[in-house]
Design goal:
Layout lengths: L3 E2 L2 H8 L8 E6 L5 H16 L3 E6 L4 H13 L4 E4 L6 H11 L6 E4 L12 E5 L2 H15 L4 E7 L5 H16 L3 E8 L4 H14 L6 E4 L2 H13 L8 E3 L5 H8 L6 E3 L2 H16 L7 E3 L3 E3 L10
Parallel strand pairs: 1-12, 2-3, 2-4, 4-5, 5-6, 6-12, 7-8, 7-9, 9-10
Antiparallel strand pairs: 11-13
């Protein structure tokens, strides 16, 4: 399948339609108590408000069956378009979501989490970022800061989540390039700050000499690692810590000289772009099967480009 690289400005110029022939866009998200998903939701709502659309965002509470039921309700309510950030991306889960859409021709946008399917039905697309970029971008900068020497501990996201797998694989690929570097520890923090805090506190108790660099699959876990250092009375600057997402909390931490690296997964562009892609399909415009919003490296040197 062909991949299409579209930066937000291109997305908007391609998808924006002066006359909006839609009234109601329905959205299903895995959970609301997640910083990244909150930014996605806020930007979906903001873009819909700009276009005078009614938007409803449902919380699936990380339950596949609840998300399927939401999609069925959206179809029954005759939503003009459906946006789904899938709870699970396995072929079975995605096919169930497509079955919940039924024989309707309601446009559907899968957002942020890439479905593990080979082909998409008509009027079904994906919009998100290419995860092969994020882990390698993060680890290359951490390696550079470490002068290409050091022991790396990986805080991994949830099992079964493609982003977790791909980010970790590409961190390892970068580490393997440099003879002076190795991965010595790896554990799942399930994207959560509190779980990462617990893991890194244990690492500090049991094997503090086994790592000098932490590569976390997301910012929340990176911030949990920094909290572990602080609670242990250790200066976080004795370690290099990198995250992914460039959340508000992560940028604030970087401004305090605590977080060394993050990678912007552009939630604002993704949220706005999902509305625009949905509207393009509603209005009969041709939309690429996959719409890529690039990652961007964020460091203390360029952070001012990313803060409000």
């Amino acid at each position: 399948m062909k991949k299409f690289l579209l930066v937000l400005s291109v997305v908007l110029s391609v998808f924006f339609v002066e006359t909006v022939s839609a009234n109601f866009v329905a959205v299903s998200m895995p959970k609301f108590d997640d910083n990244f998903q909150t930014v996605l939701r806020e930007n979906i709502e903001a873009r819909a408000d700009q276009l005078n659309l009614i938007v409803y965002v449902g919380n699936a509470e990380d339950q596949l069956e609840q998300q399927l039921e939401q999609i069925r309700h959206f179809v029954e309510a005759e939503a003009d378009a459906i946006i789904v950030l899938p709870v699970l991306t396995t072929p079975d889960a995605i096919n169930q979501m497509l079955e919940a859409r039924g024989n309707s021709d309601i446009p559907m946008v899968f957002l942020q989490r890439l479905p593990e399917i080979d082909t998409y039905p008509e009027k079904v697309v994906y919009l998100g970022s290419d995860e092969t970029e994020s882990g390698s971008m993060q680890m290359e900068e951490l390696a550079r800061l470490a002068a290409y020497e050091g022991q790396v501990a990986i805080l991994q996201g949830a099992e079964g989540n493609p982003a977790s797998t791909v980010r970790t694989d590409y961190v390892r690929e970068v580490v393997d390039k440099y003879p002076g570097m190795s991965v010595t520890l790896q554990e799942r923090g399930n994207w959560a700050r509190n779980q990462a805090l617990t893991i890194v506190k244990r690492w500090l108790d049991e094997s503090p000499e086994q790592f000098s660099i932490i590569a976390a699959n997301n910012d929340e876990m990176a911030l949990g690692a920094i909290m572990a250092f602080e609670q242990a009375g250790i200066d976080p600057n004795h370690y290099l810590v990198g995250g992914i997402d460039a959340t508000r909390d992560a940028l604030a931490s970087m401004q305090k000289d605590l977080l060394d690296v993050t990678v912007l997964q552009d939630a604002a562009s993704q949220g706005k772009g999902a509305i625009d892609a949905a509207l393009a399909m509603i209005n009969g415009r041709e939309v690429p099967e996959k719409i890529w919003v690039p990652f961007r490296l964020v460091t203390p040197e360029n952070i001012q480009q990313f803060v409000e």
